[in-house]
């Protein structure tokens, strides 16, 4: 991924600290932050300095390595792993990454444990980058097909930020877009603003600008009319947890976009690395849906004339607000799942064929 012309990953380990791009400051300020302790990593996940299912997983993996570096005591490492898993509830990659780290570290008491932890965390991040790249190669075929029929700009709608900022590199939903752009296919992206935290406006549009891909931010309720007008050729979104039956839990509002796409015969794709598949839960009702502070709705953040980040109240002081962070799109509204191994039907059989 490119920021001001320079290649970055979203997380890396350097001089005994984790380095991240602080996403709470984007798009107005580009700040690289250091995480020195496992508590720093837990806090970064909680306050969303890092976010997006795959990047949360990568941060948790490196966070556990920081725990080992801090105090190589099995009890401390175990407690740290529990706290990491609890830092955000919905994205399954978090638990997946912590479980993988704990399995790797189990029974290792030697002084090599830190190297092993750091290597495994890097391995998790390298793998995510490779998987996201493959998602792009697989998803590119869908965009090519649309372009070959249309021979004109392909209009893609996306929700939230499932871009490189949500992963280690490439992104999930954006990876096919970046691959198509590199191939010279003319593209335009409709970016859902994605209230309340505006990840679409603040992060996806920022990324697309850096990559010089034409994009337009729209209010979350605009997608429907654009689809009715034939101005959306396809939707691609990410996911925080995909059930083995093909149901997809993603940022709040995804479900409504899928309904509108279904009503207007617009293909609706979900892009994901296999680390986002939850093979254990069979019923969407059992997915823990994160409920965040109502303050995220009642207050809006932006910059003032001095480029300082400010927060202002926009609701009546007495009003209550409900802030559910995710919803579930039933598999029947999903055209296909774009994974690192290929494109599958959103169903148990489809996923099973790819991931035996
Ligand atoms: O609450 P967030 O910003 O962590 O939301 C998660 C997401 O980034 C999205 O739901 C995304 O579309 C899936 S993660 C690639």
Summarize this structure briefly.
Helices cover 39% and strands 20% of the residues. By secondary structure, it is α/β, with parallel strands linked by helices. Strand 10 (241-243) and strand 11 (248-251) form a beta hairpin.
How would you characterize the overall build of this protein?
The chain has helices spanning 38-46, 53-70, 74-86, 93-105, 113-150, 174-182, 199-210, 223-228, 254-263, 295-298, 348-354; strands spanning 2-3, 6-7, 11-14, 17-21, 32-35, 154-158, 187-192, 215-218, 234-237, 241-243, 248-251, 268-271, 277-278, 299-303, 309-313, 326-329, 336-339, 342-344. With 356 residues, the chain is of the alpha/beta class. It folds into 2 domains: 2-127, translation initiation factor eif-2b, domain 1 (Four Helix Bundle (Hemerythrin (Met), subunit A), Up-down Bundle), CATH 1.20.120; 135-354, Rossmann fold (3-Layer(aba) Sandwich), CATH 3.40.50. The strands form 5 sheets. Strands 8-7-6-9-12-17-18 form a 7-stranded mixed β-sheet, with helices on both faces. Strands 13-10-11-16 form a 4-stranded mixed β-sheet, covered by helices on one side. Strands 3-4-5 form a 3-stranded antiparallel β-sheet. The model has no long low-confidence stretch (mean pLDDT 96). It binds 5-S-methyl-1-O-phosphono-5-thio-D-ribulose. 5-S-methyl-1-O-phosphono-5-thio-D-ribulose binds at residues 51-54, 160-162, 166, 172, 199, 237-240, 250-251, 325.
């Amino acid at each position: 991924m490119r920021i001001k012309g320079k290649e970055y990953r979203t997380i890396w380990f350097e001089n005994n600290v984790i380095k991240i791009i602080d996403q709470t400051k984007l798009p107005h300020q580009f700040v690289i932050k250091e995480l020195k302790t496992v508590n720093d990593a837990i806090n970064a996940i909680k306050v969303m300095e890092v976010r997006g299912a795959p990047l949360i997983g990568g941060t948790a993996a490196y966070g556990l390595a920081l725990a080992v570096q801090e105090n190589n005591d099995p009890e401390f490492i175990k407690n740290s792993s529990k706290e990491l898993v609890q830092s955000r509830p919905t994205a399954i990659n978090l638990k997946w990454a912590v479980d993988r780290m704990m399995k790797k570290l189990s029974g290792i008491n030697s002084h090599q444990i830190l190297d092993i932890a750091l290597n495994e965390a890097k391995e998790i991040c390298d793998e995510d980058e490779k998987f996201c790249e493959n998602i792009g190669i697989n998803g590119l075929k869908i965009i090519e097909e649309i372009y070959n029929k249309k021979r004109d700009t392909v209009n893609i709608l996306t929700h939230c930020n499932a871009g490189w900022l949500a992963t280690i590199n490439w992104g999930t939903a954006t990876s096919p877009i970046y691959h198509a752009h590199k191939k010279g296919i003319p593209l335009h992206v409709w970016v859902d603003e994605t209230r309340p935290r505006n990840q679409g406006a603040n992060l996806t549009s920022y990324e697309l600008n850096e990559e010089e891909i034409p994009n337009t931010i729209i209010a979350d309720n605009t997608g429907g009319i654009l689809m009715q007008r034939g101005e959306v050729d396809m939707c691609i979104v990410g996911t925080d947890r995909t059930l083995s039956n093909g149901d997809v839990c993603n940022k709040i509002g995804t479900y409504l976009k899928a309904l509108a796409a279904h009503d207007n015969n617009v293909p609706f794709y979900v892009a994901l690395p296999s680390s986002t598949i939850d093979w254990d839960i069979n019923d969407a009702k059992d997915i823990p849906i994160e409920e965040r502070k109502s303050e995220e709705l009642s207050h809006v953040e932006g910059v003032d004339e001095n480029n300082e980040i400010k927060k202002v109240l926009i609701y009546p002081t007495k009003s209550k607000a409900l802030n559910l962070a995710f919803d579930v799109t039933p598999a029947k509204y999903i055209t296909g799942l774009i994974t690192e191994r290929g494109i599958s039907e959103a169903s148990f059989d489809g996923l099973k064929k790819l991931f035996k």
